[in-house]
């Protein structure tokens, strides 16, 4: 699914994959990479759980207790940084 | 009744669950209900069978059960007694939370005892003034040095009367939090609740927290994540368990009705030969099978760690609880005056099924969530 305002060149990037997922749940315009998704007010507990599961499944990483920091999930770019950081750690981390 | 798509291991496990339930639960469930009590001996047997730590990793001493097999366990136990199934539900909810969001230290400290049933866990979210709107819990967690001090009251806590460990949700200055709190904690007390409509042997309790000092190390899931991640993960697991338990109730009702209508005569013929009875039986069979398929779909998605599993579990629980309630209502109707008597089990199924439309998210909360999911391009 492609949304208005998207750059086709982004489709394979981590940013774009996260943006597509979030955009399914946010119907009031485009989510930018540095928008605070909590401040946008659409992250309920269902959405929060789905986001964690999505990140784990889509990027093949494990989110653990220590990762539960709002700064890690606040924006699309923050989530990308979390994924990059997790991927550079040993598999058990 | 055959279930499509099960592996031979899952079929074998299902048979073992059924034998256990027939042997240990079915004939006693009315007594549990009447006495509003779960015998310690039965809790020990559940522990010995590995049902209390069913899904925990074998590394912790758990059963390492896959999510579909766990669902089948809940169906079989739920068919026998919803109160027993409630114990499996809440204990496994807390186990899963610690397994999912606990620190290594918390996991090492708690999971072995929970896996073997040496410790019983309870889920402490509901309060006198807080039900569906769980983010508004009034229990307060005040940071004091290396500890939090908890003050508040929890209500309707399943197996709260016997639990050794409570997962308590509280509001801190920095957002919702969850804590692992032992029964021995000074300031914690429980009060047994009796006279409930259904699942009467679940030993519900009020849990009073009066200046309970809890080490920061017992905070689970991080400050601010108590509701969105810890409670939500637990409730998702609980919802799945309850949904399967509802399939069990519906099956118990159907089996009771098939027996009763094959033995009782009215107007010179067996009840089963009356067309309006057959209509109710056909609805029971169809709803039972549909509910089980929705539960299986949720299970397969959970197993695949698919984000869609969360919404599918809402759908499964919503449908299955309605199916159980409708089936139990018809079961009482078919049994007539006998169905209103404690001589027959369908009255207990009817009372227990009503509870299923309220717990782990009321019907109305499920409806709102499922509709929201639909608008997000289900």
Number of domains of chain A: 1
- SSE pattern of chain A: HHHH
What is the CATH topology assignment of chain A?
Answer: Non-ribosomal Peptide Synthetase Peptidyl Carrier Protein, Chain A
Mean pLDDT of chain B: 96
Question: Could you say which overall geometry of chain A the principal axes of the C-alpha atoms support?
Answer: globular
Rg of chain B over CA atoms, rounded to whole Å, is 21 Å
Largest sheet of chain B: 4 strands, antiparallel
Give the integer mean of the pLDDT values of chain A.
82
Ranges of chain B where pLDDT stays below 50 over 5 or more residues in a row are none
CATH class of the largest domain in chain B: Mainly Alpha
Label the overall shape of chain B: globular
Based on CA atoms alone, the radius of gyration of chain A comes out at 13 Å
SSE order of chain B: HHHHHHEEEEEEEHEEHHHH
What can you see in these coordinates?
- The complex is a heterodimer of chains A (93) and B (378).
- Chain A has 93 residues and is mostly helical.
- Chain A has one domain (8-88): Non-ribosomal Peptide Synthetase Peptidyl Carrier Protein, Chain A.
- In chain A, 47% of the residues lie in helices and 0% in strands.
- The longest helix of chain A is centred in the middle third of the chain and has 15 residues, at 45-59.
- Chain B is 53% helix and 15% strand.
- Chain B is built from 11 helices and 9 strands.
- Chain B folds into 3 domains: 8-115, Orthogonal Bundle (Butyryl-Coa Dehydrogenase, subunit A, domain 1), CATH 1.10.540.10; 121-224, Butyryl-CoA Dehydrogenase, subunit A, domain 2 (Beta Barrel); 227-375, Butyryl-CoA Dehydrogenase, subunit A, domain 3 (Up-down Bundle), CATH 1.20.140.
- The model of chain B has no long low-confidence stretch (mean pLDDT 96).
- The A-B interface holds A 1, 21, 24-25, 27, 43-46, 48-54, 56-57, 64-66, 68-70 and B 101-103, 220-222, 224-225, 227-229, 231-233, 236, 304-311, 314, 369, 372-373, 375-377.
């Amino acid at each position: 699914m492609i949304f208005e305002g998207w750059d086709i060149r982004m489709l394979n990037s981590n940013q774009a994959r996260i943006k597509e997922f979030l955009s399914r749940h946010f119907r009031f315009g485009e989510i930018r990479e540095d928008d605070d998704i909590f401040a946008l007010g659409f992250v309920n507990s269902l959405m929060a759980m789905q986001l964690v599961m999505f990140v784990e499944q889509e990027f093949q990483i494990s989110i653990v207790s220590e990762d539960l920091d709002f700064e890690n999930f606040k924006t699309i770019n923050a989530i990308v940084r979390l994924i990059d950081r997790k991927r550079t750690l040993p598999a058990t981390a | 009744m055959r279930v499509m798509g099960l592996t031979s291991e899952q079929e074998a496990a299902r048979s073992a669950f059924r034998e256990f339930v027939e042997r240990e639960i079915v004939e006693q469930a009315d007594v549990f209900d009447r006495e509003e009590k779960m015998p310690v001996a039965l809790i020990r047997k559940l522990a010995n069978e590995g049902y209390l730590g069913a899904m925990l990793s074998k590394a912790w001493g758990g059963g390492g059960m896959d999510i579909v097999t766990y669902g089948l366990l809940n169906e079989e136990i739920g068919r026998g007694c919803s109160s027993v199934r409630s114990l499996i539900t809440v204990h496994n909810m807390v186990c899963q939370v610690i397994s999912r969001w606990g620190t290594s230290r918390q996991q090492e400290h708690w999971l072995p005892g929970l896996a073997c049933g040496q410790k019983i866990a309870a889920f402490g979210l509901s309060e006198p003034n807080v039900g569906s709107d769980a983010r508004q819990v009034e229990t307060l967690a005040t940071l004091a040095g290396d500890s939090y001090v908890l003050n508040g009251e929890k209500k309707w806590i399943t197996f709260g009367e016997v639990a050794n460990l409570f997962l308590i949700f509280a509001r801190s200055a920095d957002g919702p939090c969850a804590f692992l709190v032992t029964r021995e904690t000074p300031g914690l007390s429980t009060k047994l609740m009796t006279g409930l409509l259904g699942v009467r042997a679940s030993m519900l309790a009020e849990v009073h927290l009066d200046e309970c000092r809890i080490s920061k190390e017992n905070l689970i899931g991080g400050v601010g994540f108590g509701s969105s991640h810890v409670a939500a993960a637990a409730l998702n697991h609980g919802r799945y368990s309850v949904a399967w338990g509802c399939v069990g109730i519906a099956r118990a009702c159907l089996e009771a009705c098939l027996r009763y209508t094959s033995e009782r005569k009215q107007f010179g013929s067996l009840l089963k030969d009356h067309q309006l009875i057959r209509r109710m039986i056909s609805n029971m069979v169809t709803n039972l099978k549909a509910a089980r398929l929705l539960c299986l779909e949720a299970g397969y998605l959970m197993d695949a760690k698919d984000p869609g599993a969360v919404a599918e579990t809402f759908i499964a629980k919503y449908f299955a609880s309605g199916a159980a309630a409708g089936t139990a209502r018809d079961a009482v109707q078919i049994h007539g005056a006998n169905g209103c008597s404690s001589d027959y089990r369908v009255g207990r199924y009817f009372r227990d099924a009503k509870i299923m439309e309220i717990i782990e998210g009321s019907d109305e909360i499920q409806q709102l969530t499922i509709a929201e999911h639909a608008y997000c391009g289900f």
